[in-house]
Each structure stands twice: as C-alpha cells, then as structure tokens.
Amino acid sequence: MSLSMKGYRVISVDIPRVWNHHEWIQAFEKFLDAIDVHHIHLYGTSLGGFLAQLFAQHRPRRVRSLVLSNSFVETRSFSTAMPWAPIVSWTPSFLLKRYVLTGIRDGPQEPFIADSVDFVVSQVETLSKDDLASRLTLTVDATSVGSLLLSDSFITIMDTNDYCAIPQQLKDQLSERYPGARRAYLKTGGDFPFLSRPDEVNLYLQLHLRRVGVEARPDLVPGVPKGGGDAGSPSERNGGQEDPDDPSKDNKGNSDSPPAGSQLPPAPESSESHSLDDPPLSTAKILHLDHKVMTVLIPSGFLMIQDVVLLIAWEMLAFHSLRLYVGSLYTIWNYSWKFRQAV
C-alpha cells in the first residue's frame, strides 16, 4: 500500500492451486493477460522468489527485473527432506498444517517479527487442504532454475542477516548464480521481512525500480490530478503514453530538477539495514513507468518450521483417539465372532 500511494502500480498475488511448475507459469501468464499487463518487475520471497525466477526463465520477454528475498535456485534439498512427497495430496489437512507451521524458533522475538509470524499462521489456518498440498508440491518438486536471459544488473538480492528457515547454503547458491546482482541486507526481519520490516523493504524496492528505469506515476494515486501538477512533463505532452525502454526518457529522468515527489524519502534513523551497492537515498531519482508495466509481489508460500503450533494439538489428540477407538471396535468384533463360532 505504501508503494501504491507513491504512484507505483503494485499487485500482490497469491500462488494459485497448481500442481507443477509448468502449470504455474501458464497460470501466471494467463493472469497477466487477463489484467492486460505485458511487462512486470517481480519481487518474491522464499518459494515466491523461486517461482519468479522460473517465470523469468521461461517468459523472458515479460520480466524486466527481479527482487529475490531469502530465496533459492533449486528444490532438490526440500524434496530429499520430505520422502512422503508423492502422497502429499492424500495427507490430512491438519498434518499438512503441522508440517508447514514448523520452523519458528522458541524464545523471545522482536515485536514486529512476532506479529508477522502470527499473521502468517492465521493465513495458513484459512487455507484449504488442496491449497496446502499444492504449495508443498511446488516446494518439493525437484527442479532447478536454468540460465536467465535477464542481466544480473537487473536483479537485486535482498536477504535478512538473522534467523531464516531457508538454509544458508541455498542462499549462497543464489548469490553465486547471480554474481553481478545488487545486494541489499536487512540486519533483522526473520522469514517475512516484507511484513516485519516494510519500510526498509519499500526503500530498497524503490531504489531497485529507480535503477532499472521505473518512475512513480502520481496520476495513479487516488485524489491526485493526472500529470502530478507538472504541466511540462513529457507524459502530459504525449497523452500519458511513454515507452520506458526509450533511452531518451532516461536523460529526462536524470535532470537536475526532477518533478515534485520524485525524490525518495530519507531512510529512517532507526533503520538497521545497509547496502554496499546503492547510492544514498537523497540522490535517488526515478524514471517513468508505463501503464503496461507493474510490480508484482509474490508471497513466500511456505517455509519449514520446527515447533508444533498449539492450535493443531487437539487435532493430533483426536487422531490418536480415533485410532484407539477403531482398534477397540476391531478387538470386540473379533472376540464376538470367535464366541459365535464356539457356540
């Protein structure tokens, strides 16, 4: 919502109920066609980042840039750790939730991180059995990302330096795959930095978009007149239609007197994140964004956790009680049958 109020067209999507990566690519492309969007900038966390890379690999003409957070380039390690993956679609819902909601460490956490975890847990509780099975299937389906036509300079890797459910080895593989990508580090943030550290994540996203040639559109903000009050802007003279790939627009975007509101806000003093590659925020300017280009946020999907949530404890008790009850019925029936034979 913060980026939308700054004039960016941002759409947050849920991963649909698909059962392999090929279905995901086709479903996401149909979604983009339905909303009439041709080119996108993808931001994905964990599983969302992995799916974003797959889409960029198979649909290179549609993806302009990537922002990957706590993500990975292959799923074989997850597949090895889950030997019962072939029967995941037959697994009861409460067992799927138990597997999904394991991995959060015990002990005190920062309030914002704890709130983000509580929100994710509440969202998982609303998912159906098929949705749970679908996302776990995408996570354990042994696949790796191939080479991308997208240049490393159009990729930003945004990672948290504290605890994360994604093994450090997988995060290192991602960095090695894209050696020329920009790096953005958050000192803390946990598994869901877009929830626990939204201000810092939004600043990094704005820097990334500015670097790849995307400018905020004030006319997209409700209540703001088209043109953003800049009567001499090129978008007004051309009826609001501009091609972000036109190099001539880059020179206009880097002029010494940018339009009002094009400057990024200064980083908050309480921010603990740092980046070695990006310039100071006070010097950041943005380029124009075409109405056919947007930023799409793909959620993380699921992460492996290590503690059983108390919410499903009663389901486990009911499951074991049901086994004892069925066993007792079988024993009684067996003895009754033998008794009738003896009589």
Automatic annotation (TrEMBL):
The entry's keywords: Cytoplasm
Intracellular or extracellular location(s): Cytoplasm
Organism: Ziziphus jujuba (Chinese jujube)
Record InterPro entries: AB_hydrolase_1, AB_hydrolase_fold, Maspardin
AB hydrolase-1 domain location: 18-85
Pfam (any one): Abhydrolase_1
Region annotation Disordered: where it falls in the sequence: 218-279
Protein name: Maspardin
Keyword Transcription belongs to the record: no
UniProt KW Cytoplasm keyword: yes
Main localization (coarse): cytoplasm
